Amino acid sequence: MISLFAKHAQGDQGAVATRLAVGVGVLMIGALILGIVAVTTTVVNPGVFNQISRLQCTSDPASDQAQSSGYAEDSIPENYLELYKEWGEEKGIPWNILAGIGQVESKHGRWEGPGITEGHNDWGAAGPMQFGALDGSAAGNSWGGEPIMDADDRPEEGYGQDGNEDGVVSVYDPEDAIPAAADYLIANGIKDDVRQAIYSYNHAWWYVDDVMGWADQYADGDFDASGAIETAVNCTVDTKGAPIGQAPDEVSQAVVDWALAQRGKPYLYGGTGPDAFDCSGLLMKAYESIGVSIPRISQDQWKFGPEVEQGEEQPGDLVFFDVSRSNEPPGPGHVGMVIGDGLMVEAWCTDCGPIATREYDDPSRADILGFTRPLEHPDVKAQLEQQNP
Predict the structure, then answer these.
(1) Contacts of 37 (CB under 8 A, 6+ apart)
(2) Where among 224, 253, 273 does a domain terminate?
(3) CATH number of the domain where residue 266 is located
(4) What are the beta bridge partners of residue 357?
(5) What's the rounded Cα separation, in Å, for the pair 283 and 268?
(6) pTM assigned to the model
(7) Tell me: the pLDDT tens digits for 311-343?
(8) Is residue 231 part of a domain?
């Protein structure tokens, strides 16, 4: 998508707005950590903690959505605001990110330039969300097919869809374009890296900052201290009411308890603690807490193994995701720790919020590459035996 506007003179306020699902702003992290001191000091003894709080872990998309600010209610057309919220919840991504894109691309359909309500702009983009909709143009045709077509004629490739089920797929109709934009962001990894997904929408980092800045203004300021982030950091029971993180043995339990005790701390690329971690740094330190060593980065942790069949994973195992980045070696670029009942504890990404509990078999996230059980590796077994000869 090629933006219609020059860069706004707007600060980078977007760290607050881009929490995916459970994101949280950098300025809120300190307060959040203070608010969960009780969690991090008692989670080592799950039985005691569960007597204090029985907050249920959930991935309900409705709980991941920010409340709309007064500014959003005053400045976004009512029909657009309803659509952003409806499709954000339906697709499981922050509605205010969709709204930020809608503002930057077309001022929510109100910009009077070419390509908003008919035709294309100079690059071949069209509609309120500015989809590439012209074969051979600079913007390409990510919409797929004609800008307006019968739903029955929609090709398999492309993001165009009949969002309002009126039998017509129209790039100019916000009821079709907004859910299509949500699918585009999901396909480009918004659940793994919010900023990168927005960058894929329009290849400019000022554009990413602009979208995130608008999204910040559209979200009510109370979002970060409640709802999804509170649940993901503080939850203690699964959807059946059973305590999370119940490992099969004392050694595994110690690893799981240590990892859960880091919830609420911020993500930091390259971080190995004690105050912030990246995904693999968190797990390396979790195993180091019981006196054993595993590799540092996720790609090497995957090779370290040994592999476990999906369905046989248990708390303390590692779950790897099919994510790759150009500046990293080949192999899974993300990893979390299984804590049971389909849940993991993970340090997700820069704009994805703090270390928290989330579901790993989530269809809107990257595919699972596989599982490993480091405690079964011969080197780890040898290290444990040396501690208890």
Answers:
(1) none
(2) 224
(3) 3.90.1720.10
(4) 345
(5) 14
(6) 0.59
(7) 999 999 999 999 887 778 889 999 999 999 999
(8) no
